[in-house]
Amino acid sequence: MKTLYYNITIIILFILGTAVSCERMLEAEPPANQMTTEQVFETVQTANAALAGLYSGLWDNSPLAGNQTGRNLGVYTDDLDFYGTTTSSGFLEMYENTLIDSNPTVYTYWTNAYQKIYFANAVIEGVENSVSLPSSDRQRIKAEAVIVRSLLFLYLQQIYGDIPYPVTTNYMINQTIKKTSADEVLMRITMDLNEVLPMISDTYRSTERIFPNKKAAQLILANTYMLQKKYSEAEVLYKEIRSSPQYQFQNDLTKVFDKSGTHIIWQLKPRNTGEATKEVLSYYFANSAPPTVALTTRLINTFTADDKRKQYWISAVTVGSNTWYRPNKYKNTSNNTNEYSIVFRLEEVNLMLAEALARQGKIIEAVPLVNVIKNRAGISQLPTSISQTALLDEILLESRKEFFTETGHRFFDLKRHQKLNQLTAAKPNWKPYHSLWPVPQKELLLNTQLNPQNDGY
Questions:
Q1: 51-92 pLDDT tens trace
Q2: DSSP state, 433?
Q3: DSSP strand pairing (314-319 vs 293-295)
Q4: Maximum CA pair distance of the chain?
Q5: In this structure, is the dihedral angle defined by the CA atoms of residues 34, 38, 42 and 48, taken in order, positive or negative?
Q6: Main-chain phi, psi angles of 274, to 5 degrees
Q7: I want to staple 74 with a disulfide (CB 3.0 to 4.6 A). Which of 51, 79, 363, 399 is the partner?
Q8: For residues 22 and 59, what is the distance between their CA atoms, to the nearest angstrom?
Q9: How far is residue 112 from each of residues 7, 119, 156, 303, 308, measured CA to CA in Å?
């Protein structure tokens, strides 16, 4: 099976390499011991193996990887301080909010995302063109690939604004593709997800929940509706997810990041057995100053002394007279048997539903959803007499304390609440145009159709 997976992945990556290169597409025969792309999608086994390659790539090097969006946007906002000494990664400029369009992290984030989008498109085209796959498997595999692609597009839209929206592997089309407006990107995501929702089941393909199911797709769709201010549509989907018997709220803070939790909606499995999550590898330090990043004092100060999340999810590291703080959500630095990287968990549904209700003035219904999170943390609960404005502020605060260093919540939440400019209190260089990153310079040189550059860059 490992040989099969390797050969299938090589075929997809061969196609991928030609698509993202600035050189012309090559016409070449695969080696005799490898499969053609048509053969990859002849059987359910090989098609699933191709799809597994996509998931492996998500964990390894994509916006969903544990060392990507959460760390990048944590440094960019006010959740992480940067202590690195090298500027080759572009992290210092990200931390100081002095980005330029040639910043390496800006470029890498873009290319990693679009490589995985191309991989997803290759899978979609493969199953659509297959004449031998059973219809139910064609639909399910297509749906999973579209779900992945939609989430990647959503990240890109939030970070870059107007973006290209490729849905093909046709190199000639992708080479000169134009940007799609940010609003239209959201509209196309909703159309794509609504198309594939009937194709996928609530039942997980794996008990480990390492492949998205219908509820994961509904969560992405609901989050997209929130950005479109379609709060009632989002409310319906969040409530449907919460009512599913597959999910139960995890009341033990020490078990939130255990891979077996029934509060987990979707998570990514490490490439190798026993391998630590990328979150641990990105944030762990002990008995020394932080080599790269540590939690900001501003974040630490948002926790009251009785907040159990501060006790269980944050570790203080003291050396001499200096104390730093690191995330301690994921704990296994080696021999990891019980932690995968969580993409979605039920707590997000709770807080997003509370926000959707609050924005519709349904305060009495929204408050208990926030209080579930507060109660588990052991902190004071909200009264139902709270105002709409105060409730939305509380939701924003609880999201920060609940999801710090997880998939960029701080940036995305501030942006959705239209409060990114609050960062000026902690980030002297912050300007309103920093709500978007620049389109990478290399991409503009390769495809002039991606002009104009985002404002401010």
A1: 999 999 999 999 999 999 999 999 999 999 999 877 678 999
A2: G
A3: unpaired
A4: 71
A5: positive
A6: 85, 0
A7: 79
A8: 26
A9: 21, 11, 11, 34, 36
Instruction: Give 264's strand partners.
Output: 345
Q: Is the peptide bond before 452 cis (omega within 30 degrees of 0)?
A: yes
Please give the pLDDT value at position 24.
Answer: 31
On whether the CB atoms of residues 405 and 300 are closer than 8 A, the answer is: no
Q: Which helix (H) or strand (E) holds 343?
A: strand 341-345
As a whole number of angstroms, the distance between CA 257 and CA 229 comes to: 31
**Among candidate residues 374, 242, 257, 246, the one with its CA nearest the CA of residue 304:** 374
Q: Which of 104, 116, 106 is nearest to 153 (CA)?
A: 116
Length of the chain: 457
| CA pair distance 104, 152, nearest whole angstrom | 19
Amino acid at 420: L
Are the CB atoms for 234 and 352 separated by under 8 Å?
A: yes
Residue 404, both tokens: 């710090």
pLDDT tens figures, 323-354 = 999 999 999 999 999 999 999 999 999 999 99
Locate 330 and state its tokens.
């994921």
Chain centroid to CA 449: how far? 27
CA gap 148, 64 in Å, rounded: 10
Give me the phi and psi of 167, to 5 degrees please: -125, 20
**DSSP-derived secondary structure for 223-250:** HHHHHTT-HHHHHHHHHHHHT-TT----
Q: Which of 52, 89, 48 is nearest to 68 (CA)?
A: 89
* Spatial CA neighbour of 120 closest among 204, 62, 44, 191: 62
Specify the residue for token string 């003291």.
318
Which pTM value belongs to this model?
0.93
Helix-strand-coil split of the chain, %, nearest 5: 55, 5, 40
| pLDDT band, residue 22 (cuts 50/70/90) | very low
Residue closest to 277 by CA, chosen among 369, 188, 343, 370: 343
